[in-house]
Each structure stands twice: as C-alpha cells, then as structure tokens.
Amino acid sequence: MQILFQTSTEASCDGLGIIPCPVERFEDADKAVPHIGWNAADPLYSDIHSRSEYYYFVHSYCAKYNPSSYPEASKWVHSTTQYGQEIFISEVKKGNVFATQYHPEKSGGVGLEVLQSWLHSSDSGGLKDVPVQLSSPPSLSPKTTHALTRRIIACMDVRANDQGDLVVTKGDQYDVREKSEAVSTAGAVRNLGKPVSLAAQYYDAGADELCLLNIASFRQSPLQDQPMLAVVRAAAETVFVPLTIGGGIKDSVDPDGTKRTALEVAGVYFRAGADKVSIGSEAVYAVEKLLANNPGLDLTRKMEGKWKGDDSSAISSISRGYGAQAVVVSIDPRRVIVDKSTYDGPYKDEIVEGKGSDAGKSWWYQCTVSGGRESRPLSVTQLARGVEFLGAGELLVNSIDRDGTGRGFDLDLLTLIKGAVRIPVVASSGAGSAEHFVEVFQQTGVEAALAAGIFHRGEVKIADVKSQLRRHDISVRT
Ligand code: 1PR
What we know:
8-stranded parallel β-barrel; Rossmann fold; single chain; globular; 5-stranded antiparallel sheet; alpha/beta; TIM Barrel; binds ligand 1PR
C-alpha cells in the first residue's frame, strides 16, 4: 500500500506519488513500535466491509490521516485505524485499486472476506458498487474498543522423537523427556501431537498468532531440515494468522561445505510461509560481539550516544532485508540467586527481591544459549537493549525457571524487560490458568502472551482465556 504514496521516511527514494501524502514512522513515546497485532479498521464506505473489523497489522511506518494538510489523499481513504493517539490510513480505494495497511491473508476469516469482496468488485472493474458513505471522518477516540488488542499466542516446541518423527513436545523447565516410571515411555521425548494438525486446531480455536520453535535446531543445518520446512509449508496452507518460526536462524554450513547466511535461512522460511523468524542463541552472541566492538558501551543502562552496529549479524541483516517487524528475539533467561546485601557485580540495578514463596531470595536474570544448556555472561536487560539496537522488532521472553510449571508468568522478569525497550514484548513460560493472562497484561503491560502446555493438554482453551480477559476489560480479538 505504501508505495502508492508520495514519500516515506523509511526509504531514501520516492513512492509512486499516486496518493499525495507522506508515509512516516509512528511516534513511540506512548506505545510500542512496530505496531504489531489485531486492530480495528473503521470503514468510511460500505463496499468492502460495512463495519469495523479486527485485522492483523505489522508495521512501523504509516500514512497518517490528515485531510486538512492532504485533501487530495483523503479522497482515497477507505478506512482508518487508531493506534495510541494517532489515526492512520488502513485502506485506500479508488475504482478497482484497493490496498490495505493490514495483512488480509493473515487476518483469519474476516481477512479472507476482504479479499473475496475485492475480487468480486474487481470483476466489474470496481465500478459496480457505488460506495455508500458510512460515517463521518474519524476523530481521535480514547475508547478502548479501538485500541490494539492483546494477542494470545499458541506455541509449539517441535523436535524429532527417537523414532525420527517430528512431534510437538513440551518440557518441564526445558527438559522434554518423560519422567514416567513406565518402561515403555521413560526417557522418551514427550509427544503431545503432530505440528500441522495442532496448528490448524489452534487457528480454528481463535489463536491470534502461532509460533513453531525447532528446539533441537542446533544439532543440524537448518536448510537440511526439510521436515521442519515441510511443516511450515503445510501449516501456512491452512492457517491464516501469522506464523513465527524459530530455531537455527543463523549462519551455517551444509554437510557438503556450502555456506548459508542467516538471511538466506530466514528467506527460505519466509517463502515457505513464515511471517516472522525468531532468533535465540545467535542474538546472545550478537550482543556479546556488540559489546566487544564498542568498549565503553554499558547495556545495563539506557543506550545513549553513538555506537557501532553490526551489519553482519543475523538480526541486522534480516531486519534490513525484511523489516524489523519480521525479527523476533527469543530470550531464555535463568535466575541467578545472589545475596543482595553482599552482591557487588555488574547487575546491581537489576536485582529482584522475591515475594510470596520466593520471599527472602534475590536474583538477577542471566541469558543462556542452546535451549538453556549454556549460560552466558549477559543479563536480560543487556540482551534486550542490544537486540533492539541491532534491529529486532519484538521480544519473546521465556523463563527457564517458570517454563512448564503452571505457576504463572514471571512478572518481575517481564516488568524489567518492558521497562528497558520500546519494541513489543511477548510473555512466555508458566501459564497455568486464564487468570495468569489477566495478571500479566494488567501488571506488566506486555503486548502479547504465549502458552504451550495448558493448550496442548487441553487444560485451558483459548476461548476461555479471551473471555476472562474481556471480563477484565482487556481488549482481545473475538
Ligand atoms: O537458539 O535460535 O536455535 O532457538 C531455539 C529456540 O528453541 C529458542 O526460542 C528456545 O527458547 C527454544 N528452546 C530450546 N530448547 C527448548 C526446550 O524446551 N528444551 N523451548 C526450547 C523453549 C519456550 C516456549 C514454551 C513456553 C511456554 N520453549 O516456546 O513453549 O515457555 O511454555 P508453558 O506455557 O508450557 O510454560 P535458537
């Protein structure tokens, strides 16, 4: 849609100039940028959709709705959307030209209906349906119904079992092997279902996004991992909400010696149907390198001043090629218990004092790689700030201590990270009830929450989570 406009502050070249209005970055003083998630497009005319519907947006730049400065452009405006205290153009239409800022192909059933309506109106050259004006031009509204909704994400950790089949598994604090006493299952990789059929099931159940993590990817070259690619392709054929793929997004070498860049690996996943890639271990190494290349850079504090980036890192290269919104960094932190009264290390300002069953304990959060197998000399806030600087568009925050426990999300960890960055944050690990989602949205301000175990075992349904959130006036997509 944006190429139809005059100029963009994102690129140094002009657009086609068909719609005389600039494309600019969102303000991020009052909200996370990129704008990721389901938001309402309010139509001004009835020919494509006649009421406000929720569609999936993912972008940092937009054409702001400003009819007094750009009267010619306003003749194209077909719907508008409010994000924070900004209104932007979410659909443009004239004759048979129709363009959307959101992704209809990722907006579930309502998105497919938009495509159908447009195809139908295009059959007649777009001239048949004389648009009926629905409403007066939009004005800023403090209404929460027009705010970006909170996302509920179903996550599938995928790996090969001992028979070589790809299965959805789920660990207890990252240990995915059965502890059962039964001789037949003891020590086997826990099998909770097939990834493609579970993905279709979660799409039907109303998940706002799906995440597939190849949790044993460090064992082989990702592009040799054809079964995982086949899973992504098959899931993308039936799932019309965004798919994030993680695991093994890094520079690698095939068994025949061919070198593959992370950008190439990501490209293969995007073409297979992924919308975002999630980077774990490589993100930690990239921030370690950032610190090594910038003596004097202190990521335990807010970044100020000019620092040298790293164009070769997986984060930067994929962000440059596909946009920051396509790059998620998955963080796997673990608590490091310390004695606060004597602690004299670099993470003094990040020390959390436990409450409730953790009362009396203090800790900081350390980053790990290879699915928690190795701890690295980096705290979560250092990682969060570093990857935001390198170009990540979203953070997926796991917690090894809470993972699979059902004790609720780690609210201290999420508050710490939310306070360190401006990009959206997804809470992960520990969900045990619908109430835990209410708690995490109310207490930490995260944009999305993810769960695995409770959904796989059928203990809590996505619909139950959303009803509970609505009961607490937390805006979600129906
Ligand atoms: O390092 O770039 O190859 O990425 C590997 C990815 O695999 C990382 O995103 C890492 O978090 C993930 N991973 C590696 N090992 C495991 C494991 O479990 N053994 N899974 C693992 C981590 C995190 C969530 C999980 C939630 C919710 N899983 O996806 O599903 O914590 O669980 P819950 O709701 O049941 O508590 P790289």
